[in-house]
Design brief:
about 5% strand, mainly alpha, elongated, about 210 residues
Length: about 210
């Protein structure tokens, strides 16, 4: 007598497409924005104590903005030197045209990378300000006093959306690498959170 193992059933998954979105388990789901920012990362990163702790991406936004602006100024100055044919050492010999072209392309690439990173960080800063305005709206009991921070939250959310969209467009040129993807995620995350804060402020101002 021999035991026959049970036959395993073969699971067939048919592809179904319902609009533009991300291909998941044979289906196309979600909005096209999922191509730029995964749904599981649409929340503010939080720091935890453990081996898989996530660094808070919202820490030291001002310091990051100053550092990125400094790098952008350095790379922009180098691009100007390449265009004008000036020497980087001041009194040294000028670069040849071929060298100026190659070096200029490299510094231009680095300059616009700084621009994309700066705009994404700026969108985060605007999101934080919109959140603070929403908090003030919720804590304000007076109807008239609540409309001012609510309006500021809406304005900051609109500005954050524009800045984030610009950052994502610039980051398209770096989209094949981790840098471009991280900039797009950071920008769209800030835009979505700022819009949520604006909605929270508008709701609080209406109920007050």
């Amino acid at each position: 007598m021999t035991d026959q193992p049970p036959e395993t059933e073969t699971r067939v998954v048919n592809q179904t497409s319902h609009g533009s979105g991300t291909f998941v388990a044979g289906n196309v789901l979600g909005s096209i924005v999922n191509l730029f920012i995964p749904a599981q990362r649409r929340s503010r990163p939080t720091s935890t104590n453990g081996p898989d702790a996530t660094v808070d991406d919202y820490e030291r936004i001002s310091g990051s903005l100053f550092a990125i602006a400094f790098l952008a100024a350095v790379f922009g100055t180098a691009v100007v030197h390449c265009i004008r044919g000036l020497s980087f050492s001041g009194a040294g010999p000028t670069l040849r045209i071929a060298t100026r072209l190659v070096v200029g392309i490299v510094f231009t690439y680095a300059f616009f990378a700084c621009v994309a990173a700066f705009l994404a960080r700026a969108a985060q800063g605007l999101e934080v300000w919109a959140g603070r305005c929403a908090d003030i709206t919720v804590r304000t009991r007076g109807g008239i006093l609540a409309h001012l921070p609510a309006g500021m939250a809406r304005a900051l959310a609109a500005t954050s959306s524009g800045v984030a969209t610009t950052a994502a467009l610039v980051a398209v040129f770096y989209g094949w690498g981790d840098f471009g993807n991280s900039v797009q995620e950071r920008a769209y995350l800030a835009r979505d959170n700022a819009a949520t804060n604006a909605s929270r402020a508008r709701s609080a101002a209406t109920k007050s």
